Amino acid sequence: MARLHEYQGKALLKQFKVTVPQGRVAATPEEARAIAEEIGKPVMVKAQAWITGRASVGGIRKADTPDEAAAAAQAILGLKVKGFTVEQVLVEEQIAIARELYAGVIVDDRAQAPLVMFASVGGTGIEDIAKAHPDKVASAHVDIEFGLQDYQARDLVRKTGIGGTLQRDLGGLLVQLYDVARTYEARAAEINPLALTADGKLVAADCRVTVDDYAVFRHKDLGIAIAREYDRPPTALEKIAYDVEAGDYRGTFYFIQMAEDFEAGQGYVGFHGAGGGGSMMSMDAVLRQGYKLATFVDTSGNPPASKVYRAAKIILATGPIDGYFGSGSGVASQEQFYSARGLFKAFLEAQLDVPAVIRLGGNAEDKAVEILEALNGRIPAKVEGYKKDDSPDFCAGRLNTLIQEARSKRQEAGSRNYELRTTQSPNHPTTYSFETVTGGTVTYDHAICATCESKVCIEACGMKILALNEAGCPVLNIAPADVKKGRCSECLACEVDCLLYGAGGGHVTLPIAGL
């Protein structure tokens, strides 16, 4: 889910006629002072951060004058809490709260329907409210076809003991909140506290809105850069990884950076899973060996080799990891040699110098392991491949053994060099090349290809878009424009298999923007 800041959520509420405090967001103390002057009354200065308990860490402050607002902003901006650096504050009028209420709309996955909730008390999470005051909480599922009707909303409020004009007003507000959630395809839209002021007005004192990941592209006006619910701003690598995922619909690439600014020898492992449940089990296996995760990555849903390659390159860019561990469900339906090719190319280009243990269980796992272990002797590090019958705990144990062995060898040989070396694409008058769907380039050096006896690229091309010309060299048998539309699956056989089983005349360049 993609979470909005408080000021963004309040802007949506305001569009649907829900009253919110007067105010605006500021990025500097001077801007905070100017906003307080515009409001002309005491204000609240609130850190814009996706965390709970902002007040307890000094992220919410009262200010009676513009100068005090500037001072409060000065104290809050730059505040580092729970991995989040505050870059903006919301400056808004103070409101006199006579009573706190709660209103929310969430998607109930079990019921496959929106769930509207109301509580006649507020201020804490709805779970705590329901536990402490079960008689003051009411909820109801909504038929998505007809939406939330006024009488349904009023009845929900009535169940908590509220009647009269307030019941009517709260019913109307619940309908408005539902319309916000429905319009922006929110997984959750909550107002807490919903303030009842001394003069009888209902005001959204605070709010939380999260938008469904898969709906973000339909709401560009929200300015969501990454469709993920983080409790902190995304890192540079998370942005790079998300751009890869957003630009390639084939399979899933989920990337979370778990650590930054660490050093070699601190026990951080680059974790690369495949499939949710299998990845979690495999992650636990690494943790049981006493290691920490630099990344949590999932490439599943039959991703192309190029996507696995890009995932591995980004993992390797997180810092001086002590090992690389790949393990997923072990029952994937995809031919596992696709993922093996992606890892092979990434490790070869990076000249990986830390141990890697990769468990690629599933179809064609024998070939996958063969490809992975062909890296040994081509890179400084040791690589071991395993299959579905090898448990995550066994594989994590092997990684631990290899890391310990590598540490002993480094102590004997001296410090290690982290400078990455990459292979070079051929540059020869006889090269033949074409572009792929993700901006990659496949290049053949026909001077080398003419000497190849196996012509493995023709056999290994799953999409059968290659043929041999009169000189016995690979060329396209379809239009280049069709290749760019996706007819080349970027299986990487024309580089990896060519290197392992052919003459080595093929090369694939796969750009990763920002890396």
Roughly what percent helix? 25-40%
Strand content: 15-25%
Oligomer: single chain
For the termini, the CA-CA separation is 25 Å
Largest sheet: 7 strands, antiparallel
CATH class of the largest domain, named Alpha Beta
Q: Could you characterize what this model shows?
A:
There is one protein chain. The protein has 515 residues and is of the alpha+beta class. It folds into 4 domains: 22-93, ATP-grasp fold, A domain (Dna Ligase, domain 1, 2-Layer Sandwich), CATH 3.30.1490; 97-222, D-amino Acid Aminotransferase, Chain A, domain 1, CATH 3.30.470.20; 236-413, Succinyl-CoA synthetase domains (Rossmann fold, 3-Layer(aba) Sandwich); 431-509, Alpha-Beta Plaits (2-Layer Sandwich), CATH 3.30.70. The protein is 34% helix and 24% strand. It contains 16 helices and 24 strands. It has helices spanning 6-15, 29-39, 66-76, 126-132, 150-158, 164-183, 236-246, 276-288, 305-316, 337-350, 365-373, 392-413, 446-449, 456-460, 480-487, 493-501, and strands spanning 2-3, 23-26, 43-47, 60-63, 80-81, 84-85, 89-93, 97-108, 113-119, 137-141, 186-197, 202-204, 207-211, 252-257, 268-274, 292-300, 323-328, 356-359, 383-386, 431-435, 441-445, 466-468, 474-476, 506-509. The strands form 6 sheets. Strands 1, 8, 9, 10, 11, 12 and 13 form a 7-stranded antiparallel β-sheet that branches. α5 (150-158) crosses α6 (164-183). The protein starts with a strand and ends in a 6-residue tail after the last strand. The model is unreliable at 415-424 (pLDDT under 50).
